[in-house]
Design a protein that fits this description.
alpha/beta; Udp-n-acetylmuramoylalanyl-d-glutamate--2,6- Diaminopimelate Ligase, Chain: A, domain 1; UDP-N-acetylmuramoyl-L-alanine:D-glutamate ligase; 2 domains; nine-stranded mixed β-sheet; four-stranded parallel β-sheet; 15 strands; elongated
């Protein structure tokens, strides 16, 4: 972990000491001894409303976007929220660099796709974990998840714990809320996947157009090695033109990866995939 001095230096501040810090935490109820409490506006008010609770639980340092009086060092960073992703990635030593990281979004099929990816990696002899609606961790020891995609600080902490445990690959669900709220800020994906696009969360996004535009940002605004798109979906086909390295899948002749044979049986589906070169 980092020290107060190192953290303040990264933030462009002077001072601090060499006292080691533990974790970066947004929720005052989850603060433990020597954690850094990050106090920002949220759905239930401002984090500073719970400052004394965080300090009583052992917070050693407070970061916020506005000043307050506190018995521990409190550092004001006006653009703190915009910097959280990069801060967390630096603080937890860029865990995505030590992982194969795949983000999966779409209206339907996220959980199934993540589950299939983890099983495929395991079949290849790689230790793999998942993050999503079904929980987080390796398939045989999943822990319950409060959200499909954790908050930006918890996510980097979780990925670091995976790396430290010897995990080599992670497939994670990326919800539209996570994209819009910056929960995946700071991540570098090896691949991002679109299952399909429909209608969902209109109460949050306001319209189907806004919902779709949010999903598209995963493919245009975040670094990724390859963008895997459903050629059977109109949004997927349109999105391919905006991507730097698109790979499409489906039953259409134009898809990069075609499903040319698909048979249902009592244990599931069996299919044959064919690449552009016919292999």
């Amino acid at each position: 972990m980092k020290t107060q001095r190192q953290l303040l230096h990264w933030l462009g501040q002077s001072g601090g000491d060499d006292r080691p810090l533990q974790h970066l935490v947004l929720d005052s109820r989850r603060v433990q001894a020597d954690d850094v409490f990050v106090a920002l506006p949220g759905q239930g008010g401002h984090g500073l409303d719970y400052l004394h609770q965080a300090i009583a639980r052992g917070a050693a340092l407070v970061l916020s976007d506005r000043p307050a009086t506190a018995p521990v060092p409190l550092v004001v960073i006006p653009d703190l929220r915009a910097r959280l992703g990069d801060l967390a990635r630096w603080y937890y030593d860029a865990p995505d660099e030590a992982l194969t990281l795949v983000g999966v979004t779409g209206t339907n099929g996220k959980s199934s796709t993540v589950w299939y990816l983890v099983q495929l990696w395991q079949a290849l002899g790689r230790r793999a974990a998942m993050i999503g609606t079904l929980g987080y961790g390796e398939p045989d020891r999943l822990q319950p998840a409060a959200n499909t995609t954790p908050d930006v600080l918890t996510l980097q902490r979780l990925l670091r714990s995976f790396v430290d445990a010897g995990i080599q690959a992670v497939a994670m669900e990326v919800s539209s809320h996570a994209i819009d709220q910056g929960r995946i800020d700071g991540l570098r994906f090896d691949a991002v996947v679109l299952t399909q696009m429909g209608r969902d969360h209109l109460d949050y996004h306001g319209s189907e157009t806004a919902y779709h535009a949010t999903k598209v940002r995963l493919f245009t605004d975040w670094p990724s090695g390859v963008q895997v798109l459903n050629a059977e979906d109109a949004q997927g086909r349109a999105l391919a033109a905006l991507c730097s390295n698109p790979v499409t899948f489906g039953r259409q002749q134009a898809a990069h990866l075609r499903c040319v044979r698909l048979v249902a049986h009592e244990k599931g589906l069996k299919g044959l995939l064919q690449g552009e070169d016919g292999s």
